[in-house]
């Protein structure tokens, strides 16, 4: 059995005609940067997410950096970031001369909570980057309320959770209360990535920023285009961060399939959770009451220090797995001198030693999952 962590080729094969036509059309048009495809995609993503503004850009890391640039922070200002996450948000903070303040996460959701964040706040704190890890929203109502009390900006890193719905509690937390909103539209700026393996992935690099603020949208648009509104009039320092026309054309096709892709991931997750129920030493992902889960990753916790051994065994059985993430960020050499720990990071440390992400993608078959579940059971229970 050929089991892959992700199966991008299999996914492409199913929509090959649509993709090929879209790609060929761009290639033959002679226009390769910006253009109608990018505008169409921005509009489609606006409609899909409900964000007032969508600004496409080169990748998710750029999106985070430009979001921070738009907030006009001063060197040394502090930005709170989870210690258990992909490096990009902390990297963007550090690159701008800001201080990443690492805080612990919740052991059930793997996400930061208002409680964690509060412990990291100092007089210098200006912003929070809330990462919606593995496909599930942070509890944004309490995070937004905390931010409001402390006059902080909130950037959402939605690279792993596009399409997830957060259930909004009634006012006064949110004045424009609707039942639910998509992740990425809840804070001041939402950032996402279209890296090929993400839930909505293109065939190269891509990203986007979204916001409901008109002024922020203008600033972000300028920053992504060399700080100019009008060509050769540079009002602020900006970047060269554009979404390629080809990638936009591919995303226009794939966005139409995103809900089906999400459903396939959710179904696969259900099969895993059902199959691994009650298996000793395995903790399956917990779905929080306030969010849907779009399962960018299906991440189990392996108890009793047996994670690495289980990973090794599964590899021998032809089952690839990954450890997201093998160490809390503050232990990485890059952050040794530029990060401040906001509190003891006990949970982040424990998770880095117990998490294991199983194969998760839109093409996973029930047969493959049965095999994976059986092997895990065999190892754990004997
Ligand atoms: C992938 C990812 C990013 C970075 O996106 P790129 O497009 O690869 O730059 C940022 N944050 C998180 C949580 C991610 O998973």
Report on the structure:
The protein has 382 residues and is an alpha/beta fold. The chain folds into two domains: 8-102 and 111-255, Type I PLP-dependent aspartate aminotransferase-like (Major domain) (Aspartate Aminotransferase, domain 2, 3-Layer(aba) Sandwich); 258-381, Aspartate Aminotransferase, domain 1 (Alpha-Beta Complex). 38% of the residues lie in helices and 15% in strands. It has 13 helices and 13 strands. It has helices spanning 8-14, 16-29, 36-49, 60-70, 88-95, 114-120, 140-150, 214-224, 245-255, 258-275, 307-316, 346-354, 366-381; strands at 53-57, 78-82, 99-103, 125-131, 153-157, 165-167, 180-182, 189-193, 207-211, 282-283, 298-302, 340-341, 355-358. The strands form three sheets. An eight-stranded mixed β-sheet has the order 1-9-8-5-4-2-3-12, with helices on both faces. It has a three-stranded antiparallel β-sheet with strand order 10-11-13. A two-stranded antiparallel ribbon has the order 6-7. Helix 5 (88-95) links the parallel strand 2 and strand 3 (99-103). The chain starts with 7 loop residues before the first helix and ends with a helix. 47% of the residues are buried. Pyridoxal-5'-phosphate is lined by residues 59-61, 85-86, 88-89, 131, 157, 159-160, 193, 195, 205, 207.
